[in-house]
Input
Amino acid sequence: MSSPSADKQFGQHFLINQGVIDRIVRSVATLNRDSGGTLIEIGPGPGALTKELLALEWPLIAIELDPRMVEFLEHEHASKISQGKLKIISQDALAVDWNRDDFENAYSICGNLPYNVGTAIIFSLLEKNQKANGFCFMLQKEVVQRFMAKPRCKDYGVPSIMLQLLCDIGEHFWVQPGSFNPPPKVQSGVFSFCRKAKLINERLNPFHPQSEYFEFNKFVKRAFQSRRKMLRKVFPDLKESPRGTQRPEELSPEEWWELWELIK
Ligand code: SAH
Output
């Protein structure tokens, strides 16, 4: 059976650079070194990364949207599947129920994500998947930069603040378009992150019974809709406060939470 060709509809750019594949696998290997749990790969495609991830000898579950890829992987890895070392779920990663029994010990998640839905998939995991705590993803370079950006940088915004409050960001590296077939128009980046062992406030945890995560998220989004405006224009309560003359991009993630505590 020959491998299915790339389909733009599914955001398919297949990794062909073995050096990059090996480097991703090395990053993934640092994620659940101690727990030895199940690994989830999102968007395996024809399986360039999947094949090397299997070599880690962790139970692997791959979630793939394109049924042609699912069929190909089932054929290619029939023996691993029958040995219970690999399971393939034919579904949209945005629609998966993360409470399924087979995700019981799934602490780490990785993948070369389709660029149009990468950010949505990451937030969906952080907000709906309570078990997973280690992540390694390939995304469009600009998107990775947005997640990692520091205050006062042009890339700094809501994704930077939310991710950096929930997670510690680990290593990253950049990947050239020539490492894929077909090559994408943009550069790519790989980065890892782990949920923080302790949040600055428990109510930031999306799973806390009194979570304020979602309201806080809306609060920050509202401010960044006018990223050039002083905060007192968006939040009249800050008229007299020294914060009032600052702009959204000047506050660190922790200062955003402090501001929320002050005026929520
Ligand atoms: N991991 C492979 C393929 C990456 S391309 C490699 O690196 O070579 C991205 C893959 O994600 C494609 O196979 C695409 O079909 C799949 N995909 C796209 N949207 C998805 C979604 N919402 N859920 C799961 N898989 C998805």
Summary: The radius of gyration is 20 Å. DSSP finds ten helices and nine strands in the chain. The mean pLDDT is 95. Strands lie at 14-15, 38-42, 60-64, 86-90, 106-112, 134-140, 167-175, 180-181, 188-195.
